[in-house]
Amino acid sequence: MHCIFCQNSSTEVIETRLSEDGGAIRRRRHCSKCQKRYTTYERMEELPILVIKRDGRRERFDREKLRRGVLKSCEKTKVTADQVEKVVSDVETELKQQDSTEIESKVIGNLVAKHLKKLDKIAYIRFASVFRRFVDVEDFEKELKKLI
After folding, report:
1. What pLDDT, in 10s, does the model give residues 72-111?
2. Which of 11, 63, 72, 133 is 20 to 30 A from 40 via CA?
């Protein structure tokens, strides 16, 4: 590691610790030439998750977009903001554990539906009606029968 002040390549790590969120390693360094100290961080490089849309387009996974969709489904229910955030975090974690960084939108939808089904039946039906593109009352009926 080169010194950020004098570009000397002879630096020494004097302290190493895990960052507060656990997502990085923080290192305090000392330059043997200019005697200055500075901090560096070592982070794991995350590959972006690409969502394959129904029409074949690809776009980056957007956690905020997912959160808005879940929130919309949970409006006027007893689902709390913390529960919504947990669903979003759990889905994102499951996506990161997939073998591929390219994931079909239906996989994401199924994960959300699975979590909402456990959490709140009304939120689940609302989400499913948009995600599964219910066209008429019979589609709702079929889904409701599965819940009962």
Report:
1. 999 999 999 999 999 999 999 999 999 899 999 999 999 9
2. 63
CB contact set of 96 (below 8 Å; sequence gap of 6+): 46, 49
d(CA 51, CA 62): 9
Helices 121-131, 105-119: crossing angle, 10 deg rounding:
160
- The pTM of this model reads 0.65
Residue 101 φ then ψ, to 5°? -90, 0
Domain boundaries, the chain: 11-43, 50-147
**End-to-end alpha carbon distance in the chain:** 62
Q: What are phi and psi of 25, to 5 degrees?
A: -105, 125
Say if CB 3 and CB 11 are below 8 A apart.
yes
Give the separation between CA 2 and CA 17, rounded to whole angstroms.
20
